[in-house]
Each structure stands twice: as C-alpha cells, then as structure tokens.
Specification:
By secondary structure, this protein is mainly β. The protein is built from seven helices and 39 strands. The chain folds into two domains: 71 residues, no CATH class; 530 residues, Beta Barrel (Maltoporin, Chain A). The strands form six sheets. It has a 22-stranded antiparallel beta barrel. A six-stranded mixed β-sheet has the order 3-4-10-11-8-9. The protein has a three-stranded antiparallel β-sheet with strand order 5-6-7, with no helix packed on it. The two termini are 22 Å apart.
Length: 726
C-alpha cells in the first residue's frame, strides 16, 4: 500500500492520485512523469506553503527508484534555491526534498524577480562541457571568445561588455576575481558543476557591489546529493585528455562528504595556420576539491577545501619555426597555483516565518607566474571574504533581508616589461572594504513582486559609496511576465592582474597611476511569453539593456601615447552599451526541442576624444539549437549553429561575420553513456591570428587582437560512468 502524507490538506488528494497513477502503470515507465508532477506541484508555491508540504513515502517504490527522484539537497537545492527563492540564504532548511530536473535547454524561471536563466546538467552535457568556458555553447546571452592567440585564455562577454563587469560567484560567494579572472573559465571542470545561474542586469545587493552587467553563479555537486561514484573521460582530436572522478558518501542521515578530482593534459605541438606559433599551448592541470556537509532541521554547515595547479606553455615551436631564423624562440609560460577554503553556516530561527541567519567565510591564495617573451609578470593575490546575513518573512507578502560583509584584497605584483629591468620590483596594494546592505521584497501573490535594495560600502582606497538597485516583476497571467531593473555597480580596477593576456605583444605598456574606481548604471527590461501552441508551450522572450559608464578603465591601443603602445587609463568621454535580444524555445514534436535567438549590440567608447565602436565586439549574434531525444531516451542528438557578426579592431579596420557549427551524439546505457561530437565543424579560423608572427621580438608583434576561432574543426569522444549506492 502506497502512503504519501501531505500536511497541506489542499494537496492531499493530488499527492494520493500521483501515487495511485504510478502504481497502476509501473515505476519505470512513469519515473520521469512522477518527477515532473512533483516539480510542478511545488514550484511556484509560496515559501510558507512549501514548508507545510512534507512528502513521505512507504511501500511506493524500491528505494533505488525513489532516490532518483527525491535527493536531499537541503539548503542548496536546485529547485528551491535557484528557481524559486528570491533569497539565497544558506539557512533555507525546508523539509521538501528537491526534484532533480535535467533540462535540455536553459530554464527561464517565471518565479524569480530578476531575469535569470538556469543552465542545468542536461545542457552542460550537450556540449561535453569540459570546463566553464565551454558550457555556454548553446546559450544565446553569454559569448565566449579567445583573449589572445598565445595562451589559450578565453573570456566571456555579457550584454556586449567584457567579463570583468560580470560578477562571478561560486555558490553565491564572490570568487574568481582579480588575478584569477584571465584563466578562470578553465579552472572549473564541467563535470563538477550541478548548474549555472546567469542573471542579467543589476543583481541583488546581497552578493556585493561588483555586478554591472549581471552575475554568473556556479553550483557545484553537493555531498548530500547522490551517494556514489561518477567518472568522465574525454579525448579530442588535438590529443587533449581529461579525466574527472568524484565520489560522495553519506556517513549518516546528517553528515556527508565528497571528493572531486580533475586531471587535464595536452602536449601536442600543433600549428594549423603555419605561422610558427602553437595554436594552443601545451597544458597540464591538477584540480581537487573536498567537501563536507552537515544538515539538520535547523542547522546547515558546509566546508570546502580546494587546490589547483595549472601550467600553460606555448609560443613558437622549434618543430614549426623557420630553421633559418637566428632569433631565439618566443615562448609563453603561465604557471598557476591556487588554494581556496570556504565555510558556510546557516541557522533557522523560526521556520514559520522563514527566519534565518547565515555566516559565510571564504579565503583564497592565488599565485601566477607569467612569461611572454622577454616580459615577465608575477602576481600573488590573497583574498578574504566574510558575510553575515539575516532574513525573515515579516508576513506572507513582505520579506526583509539585511546583512554585513567584509572583503580584503592583497596584491603583490612584479612586472618587468620587455625585459627592460634588471630585476622586477615588488609592488604591493591592499584594499579592505566593509559594507552593509538591506533588501525588501513585496510580493502580491504571483502577479507583482517589487524588490528594492541598497548597499553602503567603504573602500580603504576609494572611500565610501552607495549602491542602489531595484527589481520589479509583473505577471498579469500565466502567459505574460514583465521584468524591469535598474542599479548601480562599482569595481576596483587591477589593470595588469585582470588583463595579463594583453602582455603577449611587443607593445610598450603604460598604467595610469591614479586609476579611479569604475562605476556604471545598468537599466533593463524583459518581456516573456509562455504561449500554449498546438498542445505545447512556446517560450518567447524579448529584452533590452542599457549600460552607461560614469568612470571606466579603458585600454587604449596605439593612441596618444604613440604607435605600438597600450595604455590603461580612465575614460574621458562617453562609454555605453545598448543590447537587444529576442529568443524563442519550442518543442517541434515529441523529443525535439528548438531554440532560436538573435541579439544586436551597440557598444561604443571614447578613445582620445573620439567616440567609436568598442573594438573586438561583434555587432550581432544569431543562434539556433536543435536537440532530439528518442522515445526511451537512449539516444540524444544535439546541433548548435552560431552566426557571429563582424566588428572593428583597435586600428579601426573591420573583421567579417562568421558561422560555427557544433554537434554531439550521446548513447545512454545502464551505468554509463558514450558521446561523440565535434566543434567548429565549419572549420572557420582566423588566417593570421598573430600579427608579425615571424618577427616576435619587434614592437609590431601582437597576439592579442583575436576576434574569432584560432583553431579549426575538432572532434572528441568520451564516456560517463555512474555508480550510485543502492
């Protein structure tokens, strides 16, 4: 006899009917359906009602089936925290077990007040997702491109602007900042990620003041999730090998631990364009994370320790360089060691009012040694971050969140430009920034949500500043959702640490000694439709964002300082970004889903008194993705096409639009899955990604003006293995 208990009487009959339907038609056949029903049952309900809904099972299923549906992720659940909650408190200890939803496409949440999209494991798997930088292949909002043609570093762009204006978070803690930023997209292995949350525009004041164009929050696999071992082995045609292994153990009902391992290696000397330089650096990375989680009805505690070692060696290759050249080889070398520790504690004070307090502590030590020919740049960054949060539902319609934070940055930089110094001198800079915030949320049912917030922070370098932000969501019915946002963002610039890849050139570098703190206003609106059409739902979204900089650190190439120079200086004039995007998702037929998107970028900046197009910024982007799963979900076929619009280089010359194609086929088995695929199947690549490659010691040498793919078509194959404890 199946027994489901729902403590909310309004849903008791629905719970029982779900159980009866599953029993009648069989567990295996309706496992997915049951998950979807549970998801729809709880998503969208108020937080107070969710707390009253406790589902317990007895005699319904064998435990091995139930575990695939109900996985205890208390406090950090995929559904409750990332799709529902207007808060990100660790102390959110609702008794509801979360439903794991592996969406093929990104999920646009109707219930969040901000414009957020969740990239789940289903979408991450579509791109074989070796790391964070490769996880946005099918995402219309986030662009990923090479930073230079020497180190293999990649950067993201959001709303047409550099990734420096996107606040990077790991589990709602500011991270991957400063010296870690240039190569950060390669520091997060894809199989480690549970999901990625992309929020556009002004974000909540809870996570600090640094968000200008949006936030990207990474959720790692949790110890309190699946109890078992998982592995992923990847090999591509460029002889890059990746091995991922993670395992979690539930020591008892409350205590869990997990270890995640990553190894990456590529030692192939490849020069596809014949310029004598390696198209990709030789790479070796070791990455390990160890986690503990203690979950009780009123207290959640999570501890994370992480270590990373990354080596990248590139430049000219003796195998491909001209034998007649008497010049020494131009080499690049980047060696990075990074260590992190994080401890998060959440306490529920009053479950009826969702009253909780949380303390989050994070520390990191990042050391990077960089060599670009004769130029040397070494940096050590130490960061400490603490946040205390308090949150409560005053009533069903009113929520209040207040908190305080403290951030400390220590930079020790040693810079020897073009080998001009006998020994690089150490330059130390420090910044300590305490801050407080308050955020109020008014929610009138599911129709109207208003969320104003304000922060006050005091920088030891730049003084006090205030960050106001406002979000409004209006849903007059189940079809239409309107969102608006406005807010201010601040950022402390670190010219060399955040832009180290720009040193791969013969340019003379100048850094203005009095760089101001960057600040900008961001305003945006989005209109979403969920339209029933031929028995399925058409998801249609249109959005517009405007970013206006008051102060900005700009990179002025070959400007007033002279030819073959790069100057980091403050903006003198206007700098802004207009971004308009439309996207649509529709299930063409059973198992087949299509997503189409188009975006226009109008990004301009003032250089030496002249307002012109932002260099290396595409004017538009088009995207089309198709995903098909066979009826039994044994096979999955994914294809993504991207049209990247043309733009301008720093010398105001133009580069053309180009098209790229990615595809992947996955075959599921009982305990493992096989996948094969290809990237850049159109084989489009820049003919000469490095200027004056045959004269690397000249002032005209430049590997930094990269606007498209550096390498051609690439194929890969991999296997995923999962052994869950039954």
């Amino acid at each position: 006899m199946c027994v489901l208990k729902c403590h909310a009487k309004d849903y008791r009959e629905l719970c029982l009917s779900i159980c009866e339907d599953v029993l009648k038609t069989g567990v295996r056949r309706n496992l997915k359906v049951f998950s979807v029903i549970l998801y729809k049952l709880f998503v969208g309900k108020s937080i107070s009602l969710q707390k009253k809904l406790i589902i317990r099972y007895k005699g319904c299923f064998k435990e091995r089936y139930m575990r695939k549906i109900l996985i205890g992720l208390l406090g950090y659940t995929f559904v409750s925290q990332q799709m529902l909650a207007q808060t990100d408190s660790i102390a959110d200890t609702r008794e509801l077990k979360a439903v794991v939803v592996k969406a093929t496409n990104g999920i646009k949440s109707r219930f969040r007040v901000d414009n957020a999209e969740i990239i789940g494991q289903g979408q991450l798997i579509r791109a074989a997702c070796c790391n964070l930088g490769e996880s946005f292949t099918a995402n219309p909002s986030v662009d990923v491109s090479y930073s230079d043609a020497a180190t293999g570093a990649k950067q993201i762009k959001l709303l047409g602007l550099s990734g420096t204006y996107v606040q990077m978070l790991t589990e709602n803690v500011p991270n991957l900042r400063g010296a870690a930023l240039p190569y950060s997209l390669g520091y997060v292995p894809g199989p480690w990620m549970q999901s990625i949350q992309v929020s556009k525009g002004a974000s909540s004041v809870k996570n600090g003041y640094e968000s200008t164009t949006g936030q990207i929050n990474i959720e790692f696999l949790k110890p309190q999730g699946t109890d078992g071992v998982r592995a992923n082995v990847y090999q591509d045609s460029e002889l890059k090998t990746e091995v991922n292994l993670d395992g979690s153990v539930h020591l008892n009902e409350r205590l869990s631990t997990a270890t995640l391992l990553h190894f990456e290696n590529r030692q192939m000397d490849h020069d596809g364009n014949g310029d004598g330089f390696m198209d990709m650096p030789k790479l070796r990375q070791y990455n390990v994370m160890h986690r503990w989680a203690y979950v009780s009805p009123r207290w959640i505690s999570q501890l994370m320790l992480r270590g990373l070692h990354d080596e990248r060696n590139g430049g000219q290759s003796r195998k491909h360089s001209a034998d007649s050249s008497s010049e020494p080889l131009y080499t690049t070398a980047v060696k990075t060691n990074r260590y992190e520790a994080q401890w998060k504690n959440g306490f529920t004070l009053n479950a009826d009012h969702n009253t909780s307090v949380a303390l989050m502590l994070h520390g990191s030590w990042h050391d990077a040694d960089n060599i670009f020919g004769r130029t040397e740049y070494d940096v050590t960054q130490k960061n400490g971050y603490a946040q205390l949060m308090f949150e409560t539902d005053i009533t069903e319609h009113h929520n209040l969140s207040v908190g305080a934070s403290l951030n400390h940055d220590y930079y020790d930089e040693r810079f020897n430009p073009l080998g001009a110094l006998a020994k690089a001198e150490s330059t130390v800079s420090k910044e300590t920034t305490p801050g407080v915030y308050a955020q109020y949320t008014y929610k009138l049912g599911e129709k109207l949500t208003v969320m104003p917030g304000v922060r006050w922070d005091h920088s030891s370098r730049y003084g006090s500043f205030v960050t106001p932000r406002l979000h409004v969501k209006y849903s007059p019915n189940s079809i239409v959702t309107l969102r608006t946002s406005v807010g201010k963002g601040y950022r402390s610039p670190h010219a060399l640490a955040e832009n180290v890849s720009l040193l791969a050139s013969g340019r003379e570098i100048f850094v203005s000694p009095d760089l101001k703190q960057e600040k900008a206003w961001n305003t945006g609106a989005s209109l979403g439709f969920n339209i029933p059409l031929f028995g399925r739902n058409l998801e249609l979204n249109a959005e517009y964002y405007y970013t206006d900089f008051v102060h900005q650190m700009i990179m002025n190439f070959d400007g007033a300082s002279g030819q073959h120079t790069l100057r980091f200086e403050n903006l003198d004039g206007k700098s802004y970004s207009h971004t308009f995007q439309v996207d649509a998702t529709y299930a063409l037929f059973s198992g087949m889903t299509a997503t189409a998107a188009f975006r226009l970028n109008d990004v301009k900046c003032t250089y030496d008194g002249s307002l012109r197009q932002k260099p290396l910024t595409s004017r538009y982007k088009g995207l089309l993705t198709l995903s098909y799963k066979t009826p039994l979900e044994l096979w999955q076929f994914d294809v993504t096409g991207q049209l990247n619009g043309g733009g301008e280089l720093y010398d105001q010359s133009s580069y053309p639009a180009y098209f790229q194609l990615q595809a992947q086929v996955t075959r599921e088995f009982h305990r493992f899955s096989l996948y094969v695929g290809g990237e850049n199947l159109t084989n489009y690549k820049i003919a000469d990604p490095i200027r004056h490659a045959h004269h690397p010691w000249s002032a005209a040498f430049d590997a930094t003006q990269v606007w498209g793919p550096v390498t051609g078509a690439m194929a890969y194959v991999g296997v995923r293995f999962k052994l869950e404890k039954l």
